[in-house]
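We store amino acids, tokens; thus:
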Amino acid sequence: LDKLTAPLKGRIKRNKEKERRNTFREFYVPNRPHKQKTKMTPKPEEGSNIPVVHAVDERELSGSLNNSSSLSSIAGANSMGNLSNNLKLSAFINNGFVGECPAGDKPAMISDTQDELRKEHKNSQNGSIGNGGGGLGGGGGGGGGAANANPAKMAVAVAEKPVVDFDDLLPHVGEFGRYQKILFLLMIPFAFFVAFVYFSQIFITLVPEEHWCYVPELQHLSVEQRRALSIPVDESVTGHFAEDGETISYSKCTMYAVNFTEVLANNIRKADPSWPTQPCQNGWEYNYTDVPYATVATDFEWVCDHAYLPTLAQSIFFLGAIAGGLLFGWIADRYGRIPALAGCNLIGFVAGVATAFVGNFWQFSLCRFLVGFAFDNCFTMMYILVLEYVGPKWRTFVANMSIALFFTTASCALPWIAYYLADWKTFAIVTSAPLALAIFTPLLVPESARWLVSQGKIDKAIGILKKFEKINRKTIDAKVYQEFSDSCVRLQEEEAANSNYSVLDLFKTPRLRNITILLILIWMAISLVFDGHVRNVGSLGLDLFFTFTVAAATELPADTFLTLTLDRWGRRWLACGTMVASGLFSLFATMVPMGAYSATLAILGRFSVNISYNIGLQYAAELLPTVVRAQGVAFIHIMGYVASIVAPFVVYLANVSPSLPLIVLGILGIIGGLLSLLLPETLGHDLPQTLADGEEFGRGQKIWDFPCLAKKVDDCERCDDLPVERFTRATSKTSIGASLRASTRGELRSSMLNRSIRSRVSVRSLAQCKEEQVSAGV
């Protein structure tokens, strides 16, 4: 064995720096004919536990190493599936040989010729090594298979990989086939829905920058004559005396308390600053230059003493988002994702149209509260449904591009819809009516197969998958569906076992409690800063519609940047850097003159917090243990809405000073970013499954650790250094679909996260297997 494996060990050592997060290796033979050199291995005695090891041409092994960018990982979270700790290891690669763990029931299936290898590879399609108990890339808890395997290469030892998880079935029906592409395009209307629901209230409640008291006796005069005669000068802006040529700022809320009929009779055309003043008595006039249409705020005169009402209405909208998230989350878990998706959009449609016919503030607030019901779920449910049916290696693309392209396009178009309609009532109807299209959702979008499985409706789930099979022009053996059906029964049992946990369990142990509190504070800071930047565009001194469009367009480069860097630079330092950058840009914006420079810096702050927002919930979902992940992410998500309730009042501080909102947002951004450094990094690490895992996760990390600069160490080396009992964990894969309330925007953004939620390699089991091999004399 030593003579056989010596060349292989040398090549592995030279390629170690090229490997990324790989624990064990699966070798592929190039699909080219040449003579095989066979070395005979002594036949083990009957009843012996020594694994059967067959030699393979050294040129074939070296070719597979040289032709692959990195050795395929069997237990890595980035590109391969995972081994279960509740089934016995069927093929063990650690010291340069392929064989069966002594704990196995029968030897690994090893082929003697290339023809047999290729034949078995064609049958198995995924090139996994295994036996009836579960192979490399598969296993009892779930294995994703070789997601990035080159089909031109085949495994040295091949057996059919069992289908034990929904992700194992996706390669059979197609990971991003015709049906998935249709669903991807069907995300477009829902992305427009959420943009309209989220941002439309900004343009419905706008108040023109200039407004002054209405004086009916002076309406025959010009605007400048009326203001010069009836409105006091705002000395806090203009100064005590306005020199010739200086722009005069008039008071918005007071007027002179004189008899203007007598003033006109005495031919007085300019006010005496010594005249007494009083609040506006007959309403207001507005300069519609910056906001070229009447809004609900101008119609109902929500200015001066009532200027807080638009802010209060926006906070009520977020209260509706919290209530709607809880209500439709329950509906989604009880009756299915499609009824919840259609229902929340239809409520948003009815309440949005009704907004155009309100007669007072409380009617308006009730309608916006109900529109808020749709905000949390009108796109998120569709987003998660599509990601569920897309293969792991396509999820990052679908998740980011659906936001970067569809949501950004809708956000950039919205202000110009308001501008050209020039009527807030028409605008409310036009932006709400499309939500009625959700009534066709049951006809076009399939129900969640994971939810159907969790409800015991396995036949319906398989029926949906057969529809994918047909549209994607695939042919699947009936036994594949049978394996999937059998595994679903086991998954239901595991889900029942995990139902005893609650979000309160996150606060019972000190380290996990600290992580949870940090996640809550960081996500609240991100939510408040993000929403604050969204609503503060009107205080930047430039055209509101143009500024909003440019700020919304930053979503595209932000998502693109995140796609390229998240799995390279890690979560912690990227979250810290972008949040701190957002805070610094916001503070710098207060140090330059109001106008183009200030607006540019503020928009850069918006760009940075866009990146942080996209990291936030994914980070939370990766840090929380599987058994409470769904409930924990939902709880953190709700706390973010609590912070968003405060955001409109932060923006309202602009009435005191235009710089105050940016100062508050800047300080919160810096604090939130620095707090991120106290969290452990998740990139390249097995994610916690049990509460004990969550308590121990990241304990050995240092605050200055950075994934790009970290020394790459084989996981097989790490498992020799770490206490093996620390990573003993219960396997559960159903938590990813346990609650749609947890299926927020960032939870499935990376394929790594989805694979990590699935059951991981039990290092304890592998260590025991290795010890047993040594004791057996291998």
